[in-house]
Amino acid sequence: LLNQSKDTIIYLCVLKKQHLFQSDKPESIETTLKNAADGRDIRLIVVTDAEGILGIGDWGVDGVDIAIGKLMVYTAAAGINPAQVLPVSIDAGTNNKELLNDPLYLGNKHKRVYGEKYNELIDKFVAAVQKLFPESMLHFEDFGRSNADVILNKYKDKILT
């Protein structure tokens, strides 16, 4: 299920029907998203890397719960069709020592990846979302401050976010 090599890998995790799908290859992001959508007309994606969860900090892949909760609010308060939403968790590792030492933790058990490798994954993710779901809004949620600033400045004038 998880990459057991010593290489640092970034996973794209998509929650679908209460299952977690992971891909260790950025080139498979489009396929992973397409499979998760399962033919649905996705109009809203909440994506997190869960590094900066307010008041809690780094949750790693467990932070997908925040994306799901945010989509529940959109559904209940704004009337968004729940069949048209998709929660996504990007697993770039974690700096949470408790999670790194937890044998039951499902995410990558390495320190968070930053920089070029991380930014490349985000770029490929955004490109895949734009291609597959051109009418969708992409909501970035609870990213760490340094990554959030880069993402916001890069995409604020380019995509619906």
Automatic annotation (TrEMBL):
<feature type="domain" description="Malic enzyme N-terminal">
    <location>
        <begin position="4"/>
        <end position="156"/>
    </location>
</feature>
<dbReference type="InterPro" id="IPR046346">
    <property type="entry name" value="Aminoacid_DH-like_N_sf"/>
</dbReference>
<keyword id="KW-0479">Metal-binding</keyword>
<dbReference type="GO" id="GO:0006108">
    <property type="term" value="P:malate metabolic process"/>
</dbReference>
<dbReference type="GO" id="GO:0004470">
    <property type="term" value="F:malic enzyme activity"/>
</dbReference>
<dbReference type="GO" id="GO:0016616">
    <property type="term" value="F:oxidoreductase activity, acting on the CH-OH group of donors, NAD or NADP as acceptor"/>
</dbReference>
<comment type="similarity">
    <text>Belongs to the malic enzymes family.</text>
</comment>
<dbReference type="Pfam" id="PF00390">
    <property type="entry name" value="malic"/>
</dbReference>
<dbReference type="InterPro" id="IPR037062">
    <property type="entry name" value="Malic_N_dom_sf"/>
</dbReference>
<keyword id="KW-0520">NAD</keyword>
<protein>
    <submittedName>
        <fullName>Malolactic enzyme</fullName>
    </submittedName>
</protein>
<dbReference type="GO" id="GO:0005829">
    <property type="term" value="C:cytosol"/>
</dbReference>
<dbReference type="GO" id="GO:0046872">
    <property type="term" value="F:metal ion binding"/>
</dbReference>
<dbReference type="InterPro" id="IPR001891">
    <property type="entry name" value="Malic_OxRdtase"/>
</dbReference>
<dbReference type="InterPro" id="IPR012301">
    <property type="entry name" value="Malic_N_dom"/>
</dbReference>
